[in-house]
Amino acid sequence: MNRRTIVHSVGLLILATLPVVAEAMGEPFLTTIASRVLIYAIAAVSLDLILGFGAMVSFGHSAFFGIGAYVVGILTHHAFNSEAIAFLPGDWTGSTAAVIQWPLAILTAGLFALVIGALSLRTQGVYFIMITLAFAQMLYYLMISLPTYGGEDGLNLWERSNLPPFDLYDDREFYYLVLALLLAFLGLTRRIVSSRFGMVLKGCKQNEPRMKALGFPTYRYKLTAFVIAGMGAGLAGALAANHTEFVGPGMMHWTRSGEIMVMVILGGMGTLIGPVLGAATLLLMEEVLSNFTEHWMVILGPFLVLVVLYLRGGIYGWLTGRRNGDD
Q: Are 321 and 278 in contact (CB under 8 A)?
């Protein structure tokens, strides 16, 4: 059994037994913290699809995360108040059904990713970074300017999504549902990066002009990956809204994109499990260090520098002994 198999097996065992162990220890709040880690892991894996495999440094990923959250928040808000949604045709008063909210969150995030990606991918390098950041900030200020949906104060989620037979208010059931969605998304991403599509995406990362010369429409491939990544972030946003029972403009701020990017770098870019480890490391460090000092990022900064300097494959590469390559 090689190191990679051991890391995967131990990680899966921890994830599968965590709620049971947490309750046995008398610390059930650990299940809630773990659910947050899994939600951000979905967002980090989605960003790694374009960052680690496509070399697209997007600082606008938080926009899709926030869009997914706001779709759930707005639909719940109107369903609770029995008010028609003004910007949609008809007199639809929203819904709290997860089978409606979550697919709509994913599709809406994907639609915005299509528009933003179609414009952003016409640029490269620092210009791509800046234009994705600009779009995220535009959406951030748009939500601040909408007092109907809480403006700067955000919007409370009056109730979580309904998904029979699951009880999303039960921390253990919510955790296992999020874990199942993370594993499903990891499986989908693995199929993508292992396919011909993934090979072309990796080729664009290595040498896009050569891929163009070989006849591949690289713009379409990169745009498709951008949309898939946006949809993954939208799913994470929908789950985050249910987890915190609150949505706010802060979910779209560019610093949230930075946090997700740090998770990817910490865990290991260009791997599938790396972003999961990165999300767990960052959020657990935040949870532990913030108990000692509110300036916990002063400790995180040097730690990140050390990881970048000495762990070229991130934490996942250090654990498995691989600097690059898929999981």
A: no
